[in-house]
Amino acid sequence: MEGMETVQQLPMIGEQAPDFEALTTHGTIKLSDYRGKWVVLFSHPADFTPVCTTEFMAFAEIADELEALNVQLIGLSIDSVHSHLAWVRNIKEKMGVAINFPIIADLDMTVAKRYGMLHPGQSSTSAVRAVFFIDTAGILRGMLYYPLSNGRYMPEIVRLIKAFQTTDEHGVATPANWQPGGRVVVPAPKTAADMERRLEEGYECKDWYLCFKQL
Q1: Beta strands 103-105; 71-77: pairing state
Q2: Which Pfam families does the annotation name (predicted)?
Q3: Which of 52, 117, 127, 211 is catalytic?
């Protein structure tokens, strides 16, 4: 699409997630309506396509777990609300899976452009498989992008939400390959005094800058 690259935006981690008002399978919603909840906003290329169908069933399978973590799932594609409704009905009838979260009908690509979902190397009319993690204050905390050809891994989406919430609650970071219940990383010292003191605070330290603890 001519000029798409100049009008599309890329949201920034740590900044306010772009607000929007959009028509969905659950009626009109605003992102700001979900303040106080985490939001996982995800895009898919098109309704009635094989990989997307497997993904929607997979998202439905983790929906209850995410709800227990105070997370609202919101889907999106550049299709009409009528197409979304027909697809949701088809998935329920043919696959036996209920899709209970809203799906944005983004025919004019407004939301897709605000979130950098359109990648011309993949398609000029379909959104890539993007996932945006938005916290209770409306701040964008993380993003994942996948190509049209490969579906997402749902345990990583749940793991990231739990990692963000652990960081917020305890003021720690999570190391590579962290799983809920695993050791966390203590923030690095900011002064020479902090550096000396932390070695006596009972942490499992590999060196002054890398210390772990169990929550």
Answers
A1: parallel
A2: 1-cysPrx_C, AhpC-TSA
A3: 52
Interatomic CA distance for residues 66 and 144, integer angstroms:
17
Assess whether 52 carries a catalytic annotation: yes
Rounded to the nearest angstrom, the gap between the alpha carbon of residue 205 and the centroid of all alpha carbons in its chain is: 32
> Alpha-carbon distance 10 to 8, whole Å?
7
- 8-22 burial: b if 16+ Cβ within 10 Å, else e: beebeeeeebbebeb
pLDDT tens profile 11-30? 999 999 999 999 999 999 99
Query: What CA–CA distance (Å, rounded) separates 26 from 56?
Result: 16
Instruction: Tell whether the model's pLDDT for residue 148 goes beyond 90.
Output: no
Residue 198 token pair: 């932390």
- Sheet containing 210-213: give its strands across: 184-185, 210-213, 204-207
All structural domains of the chain: 4-154 (3.40.30.10), 171-213 (3.30.1020.10)
Mean pLDDT (the chain) is: 91
Is the Cβ–Cβ distance between 135 and 165 less than 8 Å?
A: no
